[in-house]
Design brief:
Layout: E1 2-7, H1 26-40, E2 43-48, H2 52-61, E3 68-72, H3 81-89, E4 94-99, H4 105-111, E5 120-124, H5 127-149, H6 158-171, E6 174-176, E7 179-181, H7 191-196, H8 206-210, H9 228-231, H10 268-280, H11 285-300, H12 310-322, H13 332-341
Parallel strand pairs: 1-2, 1-3, 3-4, 4-5
Antiparallel strand pairs: 6-7
Length: 343
């Protein structure tokens, strides 16, 4: 995978600015990015410029080579409409990197004009933010490749289906008196057997078929057998709870906000609901962290998630389950910021 890394204005001063971690320089970040790219089998091209137009030119000139872009717009993030338009027009996924402290990550993402046009966002301090952005591009490329190779999974080619059908027909044939009878031929039945055959073997009228219910019959008779009086009478409405098929055709009750429908993936609304429970005191900090860790592990194993929100939900869940540790504790104000970022 070819990855273009773009460093915005003033980032060459990393390590010399007040508040920068010791040893954090642009050269060190580029070195660690190159090591990570080699481990993942990617090829990197790196550009650092102090000019907005140069970033736009790089996106244009490298559009046929790059398959992904890691972009740190620096101070251009909250103000550059030109860079936003260039990223929006780009046909390759762009992951935005923001060097912001842990307590200001959500606010930094909200201030960025690129938030809505980038494929993902990583906020943090140090080279780890760049490395995480590179890993996200790699995971996205792997998922896209897997999707392309499994689109026809479960459907046999036409020729194979035809051969399978002929083989099945030959296997179902019955041998009678030395000759093979095709599976579609009706078996011969003696007059005595026809006389003693149960009435259920005869074709049933439409009213009887319409009156069938799911599960065992009410009078204990075998499934698929209808009594003469009931075969033409519409089924009576059942009032007993738990009867099989009683809600057939009836809409399921609407789920309350923040709950997950059976078979649905994790959504931003559910995460906001959990954070709201924590803020209202219905959920402890440890309980929220435990829930977030379980959901985060499930996402790493490929669980379903709201379309287009996997990276953001992974980031929020990671922040929530790390909040159980003293260094990662989140205040109520920070939890509110995360809720706002999930809108």
């Amino acid at each position: 995978m070819n990855v273009l890394v773009l460093h915005g204005p003033t980032l060459q001063f990393l390590g010399e600015r007040q508040g920068d971690p010791p040893g954090l320089t642009l050269a060190e970040i580029d070195r660690r990015l190159a090591e990570k790219a080699r481990a993942l089998g990617h090829v990197l091209r790196t550009v650092q410029t102090n000019h907005e137009g140069a970033l736009v030119d790089a996106l244009w000139e490298q559009r046929t080579w790059a398959e992904g872009v890691v972009l740190n717009p620096g101070p251009l993030a909250p103000s550059s409409h030109v860079l936003r338009a260039a990223v929006s027009a780009s046909r390759v996924p762009v992951v935005e990197v923001l060097l912001a402290p842990a307590k200001g990550r959500a606010a930094a993402q909200r201030r960025s004009l690129l938030h809505d046009v980038c494929a993902a966002h990583v906020a943090g301090i140090g080279a780890e933010a760049y490395l995480e952005a590179l890993e996200r591009l790699s995971r996205a490329a792997s998922r896209a490749a897997a999707a392309r190779t499994t689109k026809t999974l479960g459907r046999a080619p036409e020729g194979a289906r035809a051969r399978g059908g002929r083989a099945g027909a030959e296997a179902d044939g019955k041998t009678q008196q030395g000759r093979t009878v095709p599976a579609t031929a009706a078996p011969t039945t003696s007059p005595a057997a026809r006389a003693t055959a149960p009435a259920a073997s005869a074709p049933q009228p439409a009213a009887a078929r319409a009156g069938k219910t799911l599960g065992p019959s009410r009078d204990g008779s075998p499934a698929g057998t209808a009594r003469g009086a009931e075969a033409t009478t519409p089924p009576r409405a059942e009032t007993r709870a738990g009867s099989a098929g009683k809600t057939l055709g009836r809409a399921a009750p609407a789920a309350s906000p923040g709950t997950r429908r059976p078979g649905a993936g994790l959504t931003r609304a559910e995460v906001r609901s959990r954070i709201a429970e924590r803020l209202s005191g219905r959920l402890t900090q440890a309980g929220l962290a435990t829930w977030a860790r379980g959901e985060w592990v499930a996402l790493q194993r490929g669980a379903a998630v709201e379309a287009g929100q996997r990276d953001q939900l992974e980031e929020v869940l990671q922040a929530l389950f790390l909040s159980a540790q003293p260094r990662g504790a989140l205040s109520d104000h920070q939890l509110v910021e995360w809720m706002a970022a999930l809108e």
